[in-house]
Amino acid sequence: MVEQAEIRVVHQGGSKITFREPVISSDSRFLLCASGHNVKVFSTATEECVQELRGHTDLVTGVLLRPSNHLQVYSCSADGTVRLWDFTDGILIKTYVVGYPICSIYASASHDGVVFIVMPTQRDKRSDVFQLVAVHLPQCADQLVETTDVSAVLGDVSSNPGAVAFGRSGEYLASAKGLQLEIYFFKKQKSYRFFLKEDHKNGGRNTFTCVACHPKDDCVATGHEDGKIRLWRNFNHKKEYTYSTLHWHHSAVSSLCFTPEGTNLLSGGVESVLVQWRYGQESQRDFLPRLGAAITNIAVSPDGALFCTSHSDNKITIIQSCVKVSSIIQGLVK
Fold it and tell me: I want to staple 286 with a disulfide (CB 3.0 to 4.6 A). Which of 95, 276, 277, 316 is the partner?
C-alpha cells in the first residue's frame, strides 16, 4: 500500500522567452533571456539551451550583464530579489532581498556597486504607481543579503522596461511615461520634464512607448504610438531643447536601441521589420524585413557584432549586424 503524498511541482517549462529584452554576452557566444521563474542561457552558434539559472520563486522580470564583470549577470524578479549569477557555470553567487516585487533592472559602469530597479510604491503587486530607486548592493561574504540602503531617484515612472534608459556614461537617465519625458541628471540631482500635446491636428498619437540614449552624444531617442521617433537634443538647457522627427513605422514603435558606438539607431514594431537609421544621416536607413512576427524588443551585443530581436510569437532572431539572420531560437507557441 503506497502512502498518498501531496503532488508538488518541481519544475515548470515552456514559458515565454520573449517576456523581457534578451541579453547578449560580451563575447557574443551566449544569449540570456528571462523565461518564467528562470533565466535561460542559449548558445548563439548552435541555438541550444546550455544553462538554466534556477532559484527565483516568481516571474523573472529582467536580466542584466554586470558592468564590472562580463561573466556575471543580475536577474530580478517579482519575488522581490535581485540575484547575481555566474552564467557560464550556472552558479548562483548572491541573492539580494529587496522585499518589493521588481519590474525591471538597470545599471551603468559609472555607478559601481549600485543597481537601479523599478518597483511599486506599495508592496502590493496590484499597485499601479511605480518608482525608480537606486539599490546599493552590500559587499559582504554572505550569500543571502538584505538590502537596506535604497534611495528614490524618480517617482511615477512607467513599469515598461523599455521606457527608462541611461545616457552618456550614466551621467543622466531618461524616463518616458504617457506624454511626458523626464531627464534626471545625477551630478546636479535635478530633473527636467518635457511634455507633448495629446495629438497633432492630423490625428497623430504622441504617447511615448519607449526610449533609448546615445552612448556618447547628448541625444535621447523616443518612440511613439503613431510610429514616429523623436531625437531630443539640448535638453540640459531646458528652454533651448530641440527635437527632430523620423517616421517610417505605420504603427507604435515598440523598441529602440543604439549600437554600442552610437553609429546607428535600431527600431522595430508590428511591421516585423528591423529598421537601421544612420545616426547623423537619418535619411539613410537600412531594412531587414520579413522577420515573421511583431518585434517586441531589440538588443545588441556589447561589441556590436550581433543584434537580436524578440517577437510576439515567442521567438528570438539572432542577426549578424543587421545584414542577415544567423539563427532563430523558438519557444513554445500556443
Answer: 276
